[in-house]
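Re: that backbone. Tokens:
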């Protein structure tokens, strides 16, 4: 597995011709089960084929068990400088319902150890909307959680996935989850508690103090290029070595054994490649950018859409104006962003904006601009879809 991770890293870096790496995130599944030597090997391969910035953020997702705690120091020696812990709850009963294999005490001990190794660079995931959870119990849990947090917290509402034991239990009425009104109140309560504790909300689910934002995730939300390595990984980059000039969405083969076989045969396990159109890319810019409290600046939008600014795109529909009048959406000299109340309703706001974007592109015709040639070449046009600052970074 380690050899295949190295081989695919090398191949995809060569295909992308990326010259600088600003962050690395070992996530998905439980990567902390891998030996630290595997992490070191992947980082070494990456640094051999691109510049791994000296201040690059290198994150490892960790299951907060005693076994993981014992290896934290070895992971730091391997190159990890940030940890993300799936604590999820400080109630053992909730952890059993979620199928977690750690206790609240074990999580607290593991987080404490990590904070001594990477102070200011430890993130905690916490969940709300759990079966049997009330607003009062949630607020009580938050009071216990905040004192042990480092400088970053990720807040997630429970999502019931089909095919899981928990989904069946709720479907059969064996367990009940809080209703939408209650979970909305839970979210607002958490936002207020975190703010009072000095955490600044910078994204729908993420809060930081002392500017300890996740550099890697900010890359996603700002629609930067990224390379996905490993079974089931996703990526977004321009395959320049293959003659590509437009960004592709890439998905790696999900099944580990099949993925390894493909990597051995052709250097990578890419199962699907989809070339992103200008509209598809702007949809991603919009969807991801509005997750951030800062939203999308006019300068950032212009990197992806130099011909049509965001005001032109959104003024084609009256329901966008209605969102502004309700105080949910803000469009001003800074750019486009959600208000405090709007951020909590982002899932209902985005369809309106995406429809406006689609309507605009189906009716819009760019005005001709004088050029030395009769028209820009296809390569020039498609290269304009990739911001200059991203063309050789990931």
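Recovered sequence:
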């Amino acid at each position: 597995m380690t050899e295949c991770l190295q081989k695919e890293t090398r191949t995809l870096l060569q295909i992308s011709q990326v010259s600088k790496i600003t962050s690395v995130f070992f996530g998905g599944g439980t990567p902390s089960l891998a030996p630290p030597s595997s992490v070191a090997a992947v980082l070494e391969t990456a640094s051999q084929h691109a510049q791994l910035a000296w201040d690059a953020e290198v994150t490892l997702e960790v299951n907060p068990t005693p076994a993981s705690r014992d290896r934290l120091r070895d992971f730091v020696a391997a190159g990890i400088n940030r940890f993300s812990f799936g604590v999820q709850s400080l109630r053992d009963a909730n952890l059993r319902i979620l199928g977690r294999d750690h206790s609240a005490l074990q999580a607290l001990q593991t987080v404490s150890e990590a904070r001594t190794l990477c102070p200011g660079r430890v993130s905690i995931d916490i969940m709300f909307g759990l079966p049997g959870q009330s607003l009062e119990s949630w607020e009580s849990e938050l009071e216990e959680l905040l004192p042990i947090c480092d400088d970053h917290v990720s807040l997630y509402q429970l999502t019931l996935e089909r095919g899981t034991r928990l989904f069946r239990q709720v479907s059969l009425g064996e367990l009940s989850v809080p209703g939408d009104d209650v979970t909305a109140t839970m979210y607002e309560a958490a936002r207020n508690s975190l703010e009072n504790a000095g955490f600044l909300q910078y994204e729908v689910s993420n809060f930081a103090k002392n500017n300890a934002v996740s550099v890697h995730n900010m890359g996603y939300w700002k629609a930067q290029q990224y390379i996905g390595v490993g079974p089931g990984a996703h990526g977004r980059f321009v395959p320049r070595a293959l003659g590509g000039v437009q960004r592709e969405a890439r998905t790696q083969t999900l099944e580990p054994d099949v993925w390894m076989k493909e990597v051995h045969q052709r250097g990578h396990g890419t199962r699907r490649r989809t070339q992103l159109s200008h509209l598809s890319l702007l949809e991603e810019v919009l969807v991801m950018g509005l997750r951030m409290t800062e939203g999308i600046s006019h300068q950032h939008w212009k990197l992806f859409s130099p011909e049509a600014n965001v005001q032109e795109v959104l003024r084609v529909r009256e329901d966008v104006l209605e969102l502004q009048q309700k105080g949910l959406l803000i469009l001003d000299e800074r750019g486009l962003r959600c208000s405090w109340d709007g951020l909590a309703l982002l899932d209902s706001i985005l369809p309106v904006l995406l429809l406006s974007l689609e309507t605009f592109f189906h009716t819009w015709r760019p005005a001709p601009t004088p050029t030395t040639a009769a028209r820009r070449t296809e390569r020039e046009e498609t290269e304009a879809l990739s911001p200059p600052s991203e063309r050789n970074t990931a």
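The longest helix spans residues 346-363. Residues 188 and 289 are 21 Å apart (CA to CA).
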